[in-house]
Write a structure and sequence with these properties.
Layout lengths: L10 H8 L5 H11 L3 E3 H7 L5 H9 L10 H5 L1 H11 L9 H4 L2 E3 H21 L10 H19 L7 H16 L2 H32 L1
Helix pairs in contact: 2-8, 4-6, 4-10, 6-9, 9-10, 10-11
Length: 214
């Protein structure tokens, strides 16, 4: 009996071709199921070890999309700075400093983050696919890292109403980088430019207001 199926395709090869990598939403839900009372950033990084830098940018931008107390983005935005800088430096794997890696998030907080982001993430995963990818050289990757680092700086700086949009841009860019989707990367880059313009406008108006008062 022949090992080849009627359509001429070897079954085990066909199965491998149809197998898709685990989605980020499923990966995050799996992490939540295995998590203890607290989850460190290092544990999240280890769970996403086989994913690209884009996955880390996406995951660490999500907390900044949720309304938080003033000053929270100063802490939650630090991983974005670290990851973006590693891209600029030409690293091939994400590395978290000991102090940052040991930073713990309560499981309830992580669950809240995942549940709020899951509907959006699943919709994005259904749309994003490899296409029109331009970051094919180390130099282009470093330019990408510089732009992402610039957006991460905006996220970290405590600017009223100025953190959400750049964090959203980084989330889109991160998802695009994970799947090598050039169209999605273009959208995220445009959102990032708009966010930078809005932040500059906020700073200008704030400065003008203080100048007129004092």
């Amino acid at each position: 009996m022949s090992d080849t199926a009627a359509n001429g395709v070897i079954p085990d090869i066909s199965a491998r071709q149809e197998k898709h990598p685990e989605s980020l939403s499923d990966l995050l839900n799996g992490l939540l199921e295995r998590a203890g009372p607290q989850v460190t950033l290092r544990e999240i990084a280890e769970a996403l070890d086989e994913r690209s830098f884009g996955a880390f940018l996406l995951v660490f931008s999500i907390p900044n999309l949720i309304p938080l107390p003033p000053g929270a983005t100063l802490v939650l935005g630090l991983p974005l700075l670290v990851i973006a800088w590693q891209i600029v430096a030409g690293h091939t794997k994400v590395w978290l400093p000991k102090r940052l890696g040991n930073y713990a998030i309560r499981k309830k907080t992580l669950e809240k983050i995942i549940r709020r982001s899951e509907p959006w993430l699943k919709k994005m995963e259904a749309w994003v696919r490899p296409r029109n990818w331009l970051l094919k050289t180390p130099l282009s990757e470093r330019f990408f890292g510089i732009y992402t680092f610039f957006l991460a700086v905006i996220v970290v700086v405590p600017i009223p109403l100025g953190n959400w949009l750049p964090a959203f841009a980084i989330a889109i860019i991160g998802l695009a980088h994970t799947e090598h989707d050039g169209n999605c990367l273009a959208i995220g880059s445009v959102v990032g430019v708009i966010s930078a313009f809005i932040v500059a406008l906020i700073l200008f108006l704030t400065s003008a207001l203080f100048s007129s008062v004092f």
